[in-house]
Write a structure and sequence with these properties.
mainly alpha
Length: about 220
Amino acid sequence: MALILLTIGPPLLILFYIIKSDRFMEPASAIIKVFLLGVSLLFPAIWLNGIFITDETAYLAGLTEESLKYLAFILIVTKLQEFDEKMDAIVYGTLISLGFATYENYEYVYLYFPDSSYAIAWARAFSAIPLHAMCGVIMGYHLGMHYFENKSNSNHLLLALLIPILVHGSYNYLINYMPWHFIFLIGVLFYVVRLHKEFVIHQAHKKNSLEAEIKS
């Protein structure tokens, strides 16, 4: 019981924080649907990684995995009726990423390294799980800016894909270079907190404006 909690608990805790930070919370049905969409992406990712990636090019997993998340967001999430404001992009981007990461974590802990399962679960709770979450926030931020700020400008559409690929690839490359690996993660965390805070502030102004309109 303790091991399964350690395996699925960290991604679910991060998701709880992101979902609750949305002042206009998404319905449970959409949350579950997009989370399971993220879970399902692990299967084509395993297939693609098996074809294109070797031990020497493991850092390229960021290319395949983040591209799949991006395509799922563009092709499926943007069609949801509930996708109607900037913060939604961060929520759904994180849901896809952590749906993927939760099942991936299960495989690492229970299938790939069963003899050191607790050590793997603890290590990934402070590394791979936050990494996936941060890539989801970054992707969501730029897609939110594209769809709800300036759809005619494709810069954010491009950055939504390129930055998560670079962040994920750099994480994989630096994994054997301690302490640079964790220094890099901390640096990305500060960047992601700033992006998320920008949308939180935007929602606060939006909510205040709506309340003012109702009162008037």
